[in-house]
Write a structure and sequence with these properties.
The protein is mainly alpha-helical. The chain is about 45% helix and about 0% strand. Its main location: mitochondrion.
Amino acid sequence: MASILHRAATLYLKNQVRASHAATAGGHGGGYKLWKKLTFFVAFPAVGLGMLNAYLAHQEEHHERPPFVPYEYLRIRTKRFPWGDGQKSLFHNPHVNALPTGYEDDH
């Protein structure tokens, strides 16, 4: 009789532990399939459309460089950069980034 009660109690406790886990409770075992489908059919196309929109908007606009104004508080070089001639930043673009004396193309 004791072994039957012990076995019944053990089975009852195992079922209670299994039912208390959120992953197995409520019969929502296939939730990952929904998120996988949403990722492939909603998220990736949305990112792709956003990239296409940004690319096409960039192609339509004509970007003109702002005129150089030698403000005294901009482009202050108290110490030379350790590369090149010391005036250009590491990611220098001669069409967009001005030196302290002006754009390189204007010289």
